[in-house]
Each structure stands twice: as C-alpha cells, then as structure tokens.
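Here is a typical sample entry:
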Amino acid sequence: MRKKSPRANDPEKKESGPFFLTWLPIFLDYLTVEKGLAKNSLAAYRTDLRHFGHWLGEQKHELEAVQRIHIVRYFQALRSAGISARSVARALAAIRGLFRFLVAERHLKHDPTENLENPKLWTSLPKSMQPQEVEALLRAPDRSTAEGLRDAAMLELLYATGLRVSELIHVKIEDLVMDAGFLRTIGKGSKERIVPFGDSARDAIVVYMERGRGEFDKHADPHLFLSNRGRPMTRQSFWMKITKYARLAGITGHISPHSLRHSFATHLLENGADLRSVQMMLGHSDISTTQIYTHVSRARLQKMYEQFHPRA
C-alpha cells in the first residue's frame, strides 16, 4: 500500500494551536511586509508550512521542542510518499526561513535546521544491500554448471571490486594479477586504475577458469567472461542474470548490477575504510561523488541509534 503523503490535502485537519495561530501568521506577515514576497511565492511558503504544521500536530511535536532529527524524519516521510526532490528542497527553504526568523526575533532559542543538508542530497542516496542479502545473492548460482560458475565469478568479482558493470564485462584475462589479487580496468575518461580483490573472488575466478570457461571459449576471445555464444557478456544479459539470482535468493527489492557497486562502497566505509581509498577503487575523479556514501553510513548509524538507544 502506498504511504499517505504528509502533504496530502485533508479538509478535516484542524489548524489550531500556537503554530497556526501565532508562529505561521507572524512569519507570513514578515514575508509580506518586510521581504515583499510575490503572491505566488507567499502562497508556496504558506502551503509548505501548513503541511509541516499538520505533520507536527500528528507527531505531537511542539515547534519549540523540534530537534534536527524531527526535521530529517519529516523530509524522509515526504520522500517515502513520492514527493519530488525539488518540492522537498522548497519545503526545507520555507521551514528553514521560519526557524531563522523565530530565532532572530527571540521567539525560539535554537534553529534545528542549522547546517542541515539539502534534501536533494538525501534523495540521491544509493540503494545498497544488507550483507546477508549479498551473501544470499552470491550463493544463488548453481556452481555445478559452467554457466553457474561463470555467473558466480562475475557476482563475486563485482562485489569484491565495485566495478561498473561496463568495466566488469570488459575485463580480460590479461588484466588479472591473480597472485597479488588485483586487476587493471579502464574506467570513465579512459582512466586506468588498479583495484584489489579478495580470496572469495579469486577462488571463484580460478574455478570458473578451470572448469567452466572452456565451454564458452569458442573464438579464442581474450575477455574473461563469455556468453554462451563465446562472445563477451553484454550489460543487458548480466542485468537479466542478476535479477534472476536476486529472485532465487529471495530478495524482494529492486536489485541491479549497480546495487553491488553501491554495497561494495557502503560496506567498506561502514567497516572503517577511508574515503580516499574507496574513491580510488570506485574510480571517482571527484571525491564529492564518493562522499555520498558517507551519508548512507550516517543514515544507517542514525537508524541503529534510534532502534537501540533507550532514550532515542
């Protein structure tokens, strides 16, 4: 069932209490008289703040007691209900303006929106898998068949390295340095990088090379992963395979090859890897692209805190 939006119109909602009778009117008056806001802009502020006020009432939060975590939960509720990133960002501007005004006028002592990140960043958080989901996915291929050995090696290597799927299907045998446990790959912008991989991926590749790859090697192709026709695996084919294995593993959410790349980065950071190292392994030219995974880690820490701390 689709979650009801915190912004859903409900004519039965009562607009009473300090938020609607005091704080909202004086802020809107300020926007009208002092800021000279245009009619349409004023209407947008009023709409966004009314929705926020209704949500506070439903959650039984008084404006004076609102904390940063409450603001975050509100925006998470908006996104879960399908509200666009642009609309959520607009709502933050309105709510931030309200709190700044009330603090400046000494009606409130603190601003819970201070230093709050733009919700647009939250909406781009990548979907990563739980470790147990990854384990189930990696176990899904039937390793008694050549096809299963190949697919298992592809999944193991993808999770072990965080390669893009386009990089994975272009890996050649000569790119692998098995003894040292790393491979060379050419990423975006034709940039070469070195990526390590662990024993699980190495073992899966060795078994595939010894017992499976020969059945597909019909044209002496140098690529590591070959299709049933003896040609390099395509992105579309691998996408279909990972969907099939996710279903066999009992994973109900949407899983794509990129999910393993996201999981690779998230799990490394959650287990103590430094951001620069993850940036190099992912092949990001700008560390700001990698920093999105720190938001994922913080989100999970926050969720764990709320679940287990007795006074959360």
User: Anything to note?
Assistant: The chain has a mean pLDDT of 86. The domain at 17-123 is CATH 1.10.150.130 (DNA polymerase; domain 1). The beta strands are 176-177, 182-186, 192-196.
